[in-house]
Amino acid sequence: MNKLRLLAIVGCLLMSGELYAEADFDFEELMNDVETKIQNVQNNIAAADAASAGQETQELLEAFKRVEGYFAKRGDAEDAVQNSKDYQAMAGKILQALQAQDLATAGEAANEFSKQCRGACHDKYKPL
């Protein structure tokens, strides 16, 4: 299953209310926070504020660790676990570039992360 399906599943579970009962956190709140954080990361990179971008990116990585843990515990969702790991890897690429003070590469990686989120969740599956 690809990232589009993971976020579609999350959306369906959110709408059904099942996810709230099983997760130790609010998925909708977490995903809204992810959206805000990736925008902040992009803005901070554009402003050459690598420290703030790095902090927000670390928080993105931690958010997707929680998502991974949720789906791993739930079981029968290996694809969702893998997609969560993929987002963690994308956040890791941003962090590596920021640590190297390579803002151009960090910006490209942050833009790719944002495209994946927007294309998968907001443009196709997020309810209006």
UniProtKB/TrEMBL annotation:
The keyword Signal applies. Residues 1-21 form the signal peptide. InterPro entries: Cyt_c/b562 (IPR010980). Keywords: Signal. The keyword Signal applies. This is Cytochrome c.
